[in-house]
Design goal:
Blueprint: H1 2-12, E1 23-30, E2 35-39, H2 52-62, E3 68-77, E4 80-82, H3 88-97, E5 104-110, E6 113-118, H4 119-122
Parallel strand pairs: 3-5
Antiparallel strand pairs: 1-2, 1-3, 3-4, 5-6
Bound molecules: tetrahydrodeoxyuridine.
Residues 17, 20, 22, 24, 40, 42, 49, 51-53, 84, 86-87, 90 line the site of tetrahydrodeoxyuridine (THU).
Length: 130
C-alpha cells in the first residue's frame, strides 16, 4: 500500500494544473502486478482537462492491460494535501474495466493517512451497454 501511494505522490509531481493549482497523482495496480501512474493535465479550454485517474487508466489500457486491482490517489494544492475522491467521470471509466465489488480505491493524504473504498461504495450503479 505504502509503495503504491508513493508512486501516486511521484506522479503528482508531473501534474499540469496551472488553472486550478490542484495537483493530483494516481497509481493503478494491474492484475499482473504492473503499475501505471497518471497526473491531471489541464487545458485553457477547461473541458479537455484529464484527471489523474483517467490518465493512469488510459495509459494502462493503451498498453494492453484490462484487469486492475486497485488505484491510489493523492492530491491537493501545493500547501495542503487532501485525500481526493475520484470524480464521477473517472468512476464511470473504472466501472468499464473493474468489478465494482473488488476494485479498491485508496484516497491518500500521505503514506500513513488514507481511506479505502470499493468502487461499489463510491458508484453503486453505473451506465452500461453490456
Ligand atoms: N482532478 C483529478 O485529477 N482527479 C479527481 O479525482 C478530481 C479532480 C483534477 C481535475 C482538475 O485538473 C483539478 O483536479 C481540479 O478539479
Amino acid at each position: 500500500m505504502e509503495d503504491l501511494i508513493k508512486k501516486a505522490m511521484a506522479a503528482r509531481e508531473m501534474a499540469y494544473a496551472p488553472y486550478s493549482g490542484f495537483l493530483v497523482g494516481a497509481a493503478l495496480e494491474c492484475a499482473d502486478g504492473t503499475v501505471f501512474t497518471g497526473c491531471n493535465i489541464e487545458n485553457a479550454s477547461f473541458s479537455p482537462t484529464n484527471c489523474a485517474e483517467r490518465t493512469a487508466f488510459f495509459k494502462a489500457v493503451s498498453e494492453g492491460k484490462r484487469e486492475f486491482v486497485r488505484i491510489a490517489i493523492v492530491g491537493g494544492r501545493r500547501e495542503e494535501m487532501v485525500a481526493p475522491a475520484p470524480c464521477g467521470v473517472c468512476l464511470q471509466v473504472m466501472a468499464e474495466f473493474c468489478k465494482a465489488n473488488e476494485f479498491q480505491i485508496i484516497m491518500a493524504k500521505d503514506t500513513q493517512d488514507y481511506t479505502e473504498a470499493y468502487l461499489k461504495e463510491l458508484l453503486p450503479n453505473n451506465f452500461s451497454l453490456k
